[in-house]
Amino acid sequence: MTGAGRTDSGVHAAGQVIAFEVDWRRGETALLRAINANLPDDIALQSLTSAPPGFHPRFDARARCYRYDVIQAEQRQPLLLHRAWRVREPLDGERLRQAAALLVGEYDFGAFGTPPKGENTVRRVYRSEWTAQPAEWGTLWTYRIEANAFLYRMVRRIVGALVTVGRGWWSVETFEAVFRRAELPAVKVIAPPQGLTLEAVRYK
Predict the structure, then answer these.
(1) Fewest beta carbons within 10 Å, which of 84, 103, 114, 139?
(2) Is there a single domain that holds both residue 172 and residue 97?
(3) Per-residue pLDDT tens digits of the chain, which is 204 residues long
(4) Prediction pTM value
């Protein structure tokens, strides 16, 4: 069986998939209700389905999509304290989007993280884009990146570097040069964890 769950502990995860074996004869609806009755309040399975033999939720994934929220606001926003990274400086949307677009394709992302195992830092990014939503207190900036796999802290380092560009502290050309160099020490700004959400995992 596989289950689609949501957890708000650590990295937020919406639509995360887990796999397990169970001896159960009362139907999937009853099983889903029974499992959720025994889970903590911040975790809940949303659906169940039968999985093919040998299915692995991590190694069979073809792509993952992460979202990162940044709020540009002069004052603290307590309701978003654990959901977003607050920056005071206005962000240049055109510069953010130009730099983000450079990441789409298959490249060595060694400037942004270390591999979970082995030494390969090449990844294929399918999507890398920013959207902005005006608010009374400022602007909610949302970054989404989808790739076949990710390096350790890759998304947070990318966001940190992109926000550096958006603040005007780096040019788009500097960002590209750092990225192409593929050397981890080059990116020193790591976005804090609270803005990061694993939004979707895609399978064949």
Answers:
(1) 114
(2) yes
(3) 454 443 333 455 555 777 777 777 778 888 888 888 888 887 887 777 777 776 666 666 778 999 999 999 999 999 898 999 999 999 999 999 999 999 999 999 999 999 988 899 999 999 999 999 999 999 999 999 999 999 999 999 999 999 999 999 999 999 999 999 988 777 788 999 999 999 888 877
(4) 0.80
Tell me the C-alpha distance between 71 and 18, whole Å. 31
Q: Are residues 23 and 76 in the same domain?
A: no
Selected catalytic residue, list 8, 60, 92, 108: 8
Q: For residues 100 and 117, give the distance between their C-alpha atoms in angstroms, rounded to a whole number.
A: 26
Q: Is 8 a catalytic residue?
A: yes
Tell me how far CA of residue 34 lies from CA of 39, 51, 95, 166, 174, in angstroms: 9, 19, 49, 47, 54
Q: Are residues 11 and 43 in the same domain?
A: yes
Q: Are 166 and 71 a contacting pair, CB within 8 Å?
A: no
